[in-house]
Amino acid sequence: MLSRERVIRAINHDYPDRVPLSHGILPAAWYTYGERLKEIVEKYPADLYKPKEPREWEVWDNFLDRVSWGIEDDFANIAPRSFQYGQKESGEASDEWGCVWKKVEPGIAGIVVKSPLENWEEVRSYNFPDPLAYWRFDVPNLQSIVKEAREKGKYIIAYGGNLFELMQWLRGYENLLTDFIEHSERVNLLAEQITEYNIKTVQYLGNFDVDCISFQDDWGAQTQLMINPKLWRKLFKPFYRKMFKEAHELGFNVLFHSDGYILDIIPDLIEIGVDILNPQFSCMDLYELRSLTKDKVCILSDIDRQYILPKGTPEEVKKYINNVFDLFGDKKGGFIFRGWIISGDTPLENIKSMYEAYEYNLRRFAND
To answer: 262: Cβ–Cβ under 8 A, 6 or more apart, which residues?
Structure first.
């Protein structure tokens, strides 16, 4: 079974041949471990674990330029260009929205240190960027990625944007939360502008042969939603519904990622059209999450990157991943396993255990 069919069957709860796998090694891990990490990766060539073309390793001089190297999985991804999250190296840089990002450490996303709409009066002269600006879409490169992905049978995801996080960066977190209560008209104005920006982005992505549009917003704190769920439903649910509806009408699945505790709004996200949900496992009770989502949405899993991966023992890492497969794995589908090495604070022994657990469970669920 090719990856695309496998993923579609998982989304539709239609008996894929095995659990689909989404995997990525983030830049900070390469910065920290370099060749030692590569040696671990190369030990797992079975099934999906096939390194990308070795030319990357031959022509690049150092690991600072090798952060895109990874492992084949069931997915391919494309995205518009953006200057969000800061520049490649450390320092400060402005993005296309006028938000100034500060990055202290290469390989880790920066933070916004200056918001262009911190003073609301600035909105009178503020020019929202053009979603169809020529620089956003490197068409030949995107077409090449899609062509190669189709030849390999991949399921292709295109990034459609965020909403809440961009509003924070534009307005400032405290200002925005105050607006929720005291100036809802400001919230609506920003949300409308960003929603239309994202919709035009999604429409343009319709020119490419992709399968899914992903959106992301971190709505959860460690133990609760950042705002009252009733207020979320009033202020934000209609805008997400509109974006998801546009993606569906263009024939795409919808993937939504949110870190933090979001159990309170998961039924709402399912109601308004999320096909694949990627929550942060370490912030929620996994049994309750399973109860809320079973047979209703496809779960793209997470690994506990707060405690288990960086601080657990290799045995605890394996036990955790086995438990995730036991909870969410199902022969009829509804589950995609995602593995991320989030940072350089993950011990190499735990990385190795993570790969061993991946391989064991992928084979176990393929052969059950």
So the answer is: 219, 220, 225, 269, 279, 283, 284
> What's the pLDDT tens digit per position in 123-175?
999 999 999 999 999 999 899 989 989 998 999 999 999 999 999 999 999 99
Residue 303 burial class via C-beta count within 10 angstroms: exposed 0-12, middle 13-18, buried 19 and up: buried
Per-residue pLDDT of 172-215, as tens digits, reads 999 999 999 999 999 999 999 999 999 999 999 999 999 999 99
C-alpha 283/C-alpha 210 separation (Å) is 31
Termini Cα distance of the chain:
17
The model carries a pTM of 0.92
* Distance in angstroms (rounded) separating the CA atoms of residues 70 and 49: 9
Q: CB pairs under 8 A, 24+ apart, for 134-143?
A: 135/81, 136/80, 136/81, 136/82, 136/201, 137/80, 137/81, 137/204, 138/81, 142/78, 142/208, 143/208
> Concatenated DSSP letters for 84-124?
TT--SSSEEEE-TTSPEEEESSTTS--EEEE-TTSSGGGGG
Instruction: Check: CB of residue 256 under 8 Å from CB of residue 214.
Output: yes
Q: Give yes or no for a contact between 139 and 83, defined as CB atoms under 8 angstroms apart.
A: no
Handedness of CA 170, 173, 176, 180 (dihedral sign): positive
Nearest alpha carbon to residue 235 among 161, 164, 166, 169: 164
| Cβ-Cβ contacts under 8 Å for 79 (sequence gap 6 or more) | 158, 159
Quote the CA–CA distance of 97 and 166 in Å, as a whole number.
9
User: Strand, helix or coil at 58?
Assistant: helix
The conformational region for residue 295 under phi > 0 = left, psi -120 to 50 = alpha, else beta, is left
Could you give the dihedral angle defined by the CA atoms of residues 274, 278, 281 and 283, in that order, rounded to the nearest 10 degrees?
Answer: -70
DSSP 264-305: GGHHHHHHTT-SEEEE-GGGS-HHHHHHHHTTTSEEE----T
Q: Which two structure tokens, joined as six digits, stand for 30?
A: 């390469």
What torsion do the CA atoms of 96, 78, 255, 169 make, to the nearest 10 degrees? -10
How many C-beta atoms surround the C-beta of residue 249 within 10 A? 11
User: Is-contact 247 289, C-beta < 8 A?
Assistant: no
